[in-house]
């Protein structure tokens, strides 16, 4: 079974590497709704980004970020999103475990919670908690940018210092073959 998956992935990877970025604009419009969530805003960083990313809300006003991979064959981006899901779940679990021990300077930094994931024949969907924040580039003062950058690095180092061996195994860089075999 795993070799069959591998023979589907290799041609898909070669095709996407050679032809998918050939300058054609691929329509990436977000669905008007996904499950109970209604579309609010497109978060696409660029037109050739391999995922659809948008902000959604429930009828009660709860906001989530939804990231969608679509394709006829599972390619490198599908497995990238699988890895992102695993990393988010693991970091959130570590954050919950060490939350009371977080230094005061790091307590306002959060890791988004994975709300749900859904896999369909040609689609993988990640819905994660929306955390209100500003991009670093929106700060005009480079000293402030560096301060916040170092704060986030300190947060990740703190979480990393509290990883169990099982957490490390889940966070380690994954290659496609690790998903197949």
Architecture blueprint of SSEs:
Layout: H1 2-18, E1 33-34, E2 37-42, E3 52-57, E4 63-70, H2 76-98, E5 114-120, E6 123-129, H3 142-161, H4 165-171, H5 176-180
What characteristic shape results from the CA principal axes? Answer: globular
Spatial extent as radius of gyration: 18 Å
The beta-strand count equals 6
Q: Give the SSE string.
A: HEEEEHEEHHH
Quaternary state of this entry equals single chain
Q: Provide mean pLDDT, rounded.
A: 84
Residues in helices, as a percent range:
25-40%
- Report strand order across the widest sheet: 1-2-3-4-6-5
- The secondary-structure class comes to alpha+beta
- Sheet-strand content, in percent, reads 15-25%
Catalogue the unreliable spans: 21-25
Q: How many distinct helices?
A: 5
Main sheet makeup: 6 strands, antiparallel
Measure the end-to-end span: 9 Å
Explained architecture:
There is one protein chain. The protein is of the alpha+beta class. 40% of the residues lie in helices and 20% in strands. The protein is built from five helices and six strands, in the order H-E-E-E-E-H-E-E-H-H-H. It has helices at 2-18, 76-98, 142-161, 165-171, 176-180; strands at 33-34, 37-42, 52-57, 63-70, 114-120, 123-129. It has a six-stranded antiparallel sheet with strand order 1-2-3-4-6-5, covered by helices on one side. The longest helix has 23 residues, at 76-98. The N and C termini lie close together (9 Å). 14% of the residues are buried. Residues 21-25 have low confidence and may be disordered.
């Amino acid at each position: 079974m795993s070799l069959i998956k591998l023979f589907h992935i290799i041609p898909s990877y070669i095709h996407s590497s050679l032809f998918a970025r050939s300058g054609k604009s691929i329509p990436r419009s977000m669905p008007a709704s996904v499950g109970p969530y209604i579309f609010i805003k497109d978060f696409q960083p660029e037109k050739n980004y391999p995922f659809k990313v948008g902000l959604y809300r429930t009828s009660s006003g709860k906001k989530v970020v939804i990231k969608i991979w679509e394709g006829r064959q599972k390619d490198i981006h599908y497995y990238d999103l699988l890895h992102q899901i695993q990393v988010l779940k693991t970091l959130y679990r570590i954050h919950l475990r060490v939350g009371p021990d977080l230094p005061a300077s790091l307590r306002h930094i959060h890791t988004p919670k994975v709300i749900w994931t859904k896999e369909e024949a040609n689609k993988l969907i990640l819905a994660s908690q929306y955390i209100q924040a500003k991009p670093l580039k929106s700060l005009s003062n480079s000293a402030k940018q560096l301060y916040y950058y170092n704060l986030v690095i300190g947060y990740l180092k703190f979480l990393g210092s509290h990883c169990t061996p099982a957490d490390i195994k889940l966070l380690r860089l994954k290659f496609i073959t690790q998903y197949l075999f």
